[in-house]
Amino acid sequence: MGICQSLLDSEETKEQLKRSREIDKQLEKKKTTMLEQSVLLIGPGESGKSTVMKQIRAMSGNYTKGELDERKVLILRNLHQFSVMLLDYAKRTCLDITEEEIKGYTVMCEEMDNSISNEGVIKPQTVEIMKEFWKTKAIMDAYEKRNIFHLTDSAGYFFENLDRIVMPGFEPTNQDIVHIRIPTSGVSQADVVLKNIKLTICDCGGQRSERRKWYHFFDDNNAVLFVAAISEFDQKLIEDENTNRMEEAIRLFWTVFNGKFFNKSAVILFLNKIDIFREKMKSVKIKDSFPRYDGPNTVQDGVKFFRKQFKDGIHPNFKKRLYCHETCAISDQVQIIINTVIDTVVQENLKDTGMI
Ligand SMILES: Nc1nc2c(ncn2[C@@H]2O[C@H](COP(=O)(O)OP(=O)(O)OP(=O)(O)O)[C@@H](O)[C@H]2O)c(=O)[nH]1
Ligand SMILES: [Mg+2]
């Protein structure tokens, strides 16, 4: 004991111990850095960033009762917003709808709003009118033209599932949750643990007015996940009716990845909403929106073309680190792709630290 104490007391030993503790700290720090990864989610508005975030959240564990209750109200709020938008479009475009129907459905929307705000439910008599509303020809026609007035595809899903949603004791499933549409304002950050890695994810609002906030989050990311909706090649922006959504996504991608940021981050591109793209390919011609397209109007050729559009405009350094996936973020299958992406991100960062 005495010898040990005197050894510990010697100046040289003290210095060695100090150094050893510092190295331990460094190693510990390195270990934590390896297991903590930050991912930035960017891309234009409505491309599916928050939906990807919800899938990551679902992979990391179940929702609490309180969280499910909150989401239930969001679904009812979505149903109200979609009803107002459908009715407004039907009214404006003078479709086959009578004054009496307009009055009745306007009252229906007001009652939905009141009962959701006051009791967090929709009254059974209002639900009956909503079912009738959804089957009205003018409303069905309006839904068919949803691309024009920017109604999200989720509207159809929630109306089709109305009976289940309004049942007492309804608990939203993951499918219900990924269909909720709430535009992100600012940046929403979440920490989740997946595959033994602590992921800090920043989900940024994608509309033009939101993008200036992105730059505050551009430093020190292990990965950047850019989400673009491949299905939107024939649609215009909500913010600017003259700009094609896909052209905007491609330009935005080039701007972000030709700047001075992300020199060490893994770059992942999700060409999302591939389910809608597949459907569109049956009736919509890519060439009508992209005159420079001269391939056959097939899913495979279309995907190849858009992949190339994104890739061609970025610096070769980024091309080397670019991983591209076609995704359908509302399908739970996307969780398999997310798993692959996490592996890629970790591997890229291990390469950077010289560990592999
Ligand atoms: N059919 C289909 N719908 C999708 C897909 N991904 C997202 N959606 C729906 O598209 C809508 C928009 O998705 P969000 O995740 O809110 O989009 P965002 O990119 O976060 O939008 P901002 O927050 O405004 O930037 C939601 O209603 C989703 O349910 C997909 O792959 N297929
Ligand atoms: Mg969002």
TrEMBL record:
Binding site for Mg(2+): 50, 184
Sequence positions that bind GTP: 46-51, 153-154, 203-207, 272-275, 329
PROSITE patterns xrefs: G_ALPHA
BP terms from Gene Ontology: adenylate cyclase-modulating G protein-coupled receptor signaling pathway
CDD domains registered for this protein in UniProt: G-alpha (cd00066)
InterPro entries per the UniProt record, alphabetical: Gprotein_alpha_su, GproteinA_insert, P-loop_NTPase
UniProt keywords, alphabetically: GTP-binding, Lipoprotein, Magnesium, Metal-binding, Myristate, Nucleotide-binding, Palmitate, Transducer
SUPFAM superfamilies, sorted: P-loop containing nucleoside triphosphate hydrolases, Transducin (alpha subunit), insertion domain
Listed transmembrane segments: none
UniProt xrefs under Gene3D superfamilies: GI Alpha 1, domain 2-like, P-loop containing nucleotide triphosphate hydrolases
Gene Ontology CC terms, in alphabetical order: cytoplasm; heterotrimeric G-protein complex
Domain of life: Eukaryota
Pfam families: G-alpha (PF00503)
Gene Ontology molecular function: G protein-coupled receptor binding; G-protein beta/gamma-subunit complex binding; GTP binding; GTPase activity; metal ion binding
Subunit structure: G proteins are composed of 3 units; alpha, beta and gamma. The alpha chain contains the guanine nucleotide binding site.
UniProt name for this protein: Uncharacterized protein
